[in-house]
Amino acid sequence: MKKSIALMFILLSTCVFTGCCDGNQHLVQENEFIMEDISMETIEGNSMFAFDVFKQLNDEDEDQNILISPISISTALTMTYQGAATTTKEAMAETLGYTHLDNEKINESYRNLIRYLEQYGDEVELNFANSIWISEGESIKNGFLAVNKDVFDASVTSLDFSKPDAAHQINQWISDETNHKIEKMVESPISKDIVLYLINAMYFKGDWTDRFDEENTFKTQFHKEDGSTSEILMMRRSGKIEFGQGKKYTAVRLSYGSGRAAMYCILPQETGSINDFIAGFDLDEWREVKSSVMERDNVS
User: Fold this and answer.
1) Is 109 helix (H, G, I), strand (E, B) or coil?
2) What is the pLDDT of residue 78?
3) What are phi and psi of 124, to 5 degrees?
4) Both 257 and 196 in a single domain?
5) H-helix or E-strand containing 78?
6) Which domain holds residue 62?
7) Are residues 115 and 239 in the same domain?
8) Structural domain tally of the chain?
9) Contacts (Cβ under 8 Å, ≥6 apart) of 75
């Protein structure tokens, strides 16, 4: 009988992470994490993987809206990577961008990155949680469990998957970690083929640093990729804003709380297709977008 490991990435978020921070950020609290131990090689690997995943999903659903959390996917796969060996490990390393990195550097990066993500301040709530649920009676290597507890702060639970309430217990954990926004992911009864569930759950809620005035909300026509339009509500804000432009795009950076967390909104030029823009977007393009953005006056 073929047994399976189920990976789950649970996301309720308003932003996508493709790196741990902007280049001008500093430590918030000493002894909480060591920024220098978050290797740029790991961050770049995660970033390249993020664009690869996003492009693949967009190719499969070109006419759909897509929201993903690359750091959630990378984390769950990197947790799984701790138990991989030989050709499986080599294939995962190539996919995740870890080909030239040893486990120690990867794990030390994640240990500090996870703690970094917990330091966004009072106006930003970000919960980043990992768990492993083992089918009772299955033998899982202690080393695999130990490194996931130590590095990824994963909770480990042995559970009788045959019990009627087994799925409910896992779903309850998911609900708790997403502030009760996601109630059900695991279906009951759980398949006998499942050996364990490895789950990452992420919840993000942030207040804008500079809030939009509700009175400035207006109706306008939104132009879709297929040429059709629909009426939607849009927010408006004028004055100083972090704004950037390139040959292919216009971009704004909208920060949350103290400004350490932000959402980048990127609008391709009208002459091109958004799917073509996504297909050509990579880590170098992302760096160009970020470097082009700076605070400007009288942007509306």
Assistant:
1) helix
2) 97
3) -130, 125
4) no
5) helix 70-81
6) 4-206
7) no
8) 2
9) 110, 114, 128, 130, 152, 200
